[in-house]
Fold:
Amino acid sequence: MSKLNASDKFLDLSDYGRSFGRFLALQLKETRFTPIHVTLLFGISGLIAIYCILNHYYITASFFILLKSGIDAADGELARLKKTPSYSGRYLDSIFDIFLNFFFLLAIWKVTNTSFWMMLLAFFCIQLQGTLYNYYYVILRNKSVGGDTTSKVFEYKTPKALPGESQKSVTILFKIYTVVYGGFDKIIHFLDQNAYKVKTFPNWFMTLLSLYGLGFQLLLIAFMLTMGWIEFIIPILIYYSILIIALIGIRKSFII
Structure:
């Protein structure tokens, strides 16, 4: 089941792992594996990548970073195939992502001469980039007929647990989610408060925006690791944030 109406589908440059994710989900459809198990699996892949960075195995680290992206696409696919959507899975996925992002950059800082404060700034920047992508993308998803609505434009209220999941787990994970993502959500909402009023976003705009999707960010990191450009990763991720103002400006000026 697609998250978007046919007319809203766009070339998502950050979603290159979707084919692998769908393949993996199909293999697990008739097994006891749940989407939560798959989320844990991509977390393990991310931890292996961090270990490899710390030990200077950069090409291997790149492989596990990209594998993490592929597996990351599989948990949602498996939930749709098994018809078991859950808020627990949605929040756990996002929580794993933000912590892995931080530790990816922390590992890169550890093996380079980059300032610790530059590393923190890069982390802030990539989260703000990803939040902008998710903000517009979730708006588009929520406007789609029959689309996935476990993600909300405004996350301010603990949702009611869906069948098959614990309300306690949903409540705890939601609180963690709001702590780690709430500040970024507020900043992006402040910068473009009326985006949710837009009927739809052009496909070309969403494709351009997907340069800020987590998958593309990880692809960029993996590419630079493979090329031996690890010293440039943190500075480039910071400068890459210049597009935030440009994208919001395009939205406000031409997409109303």
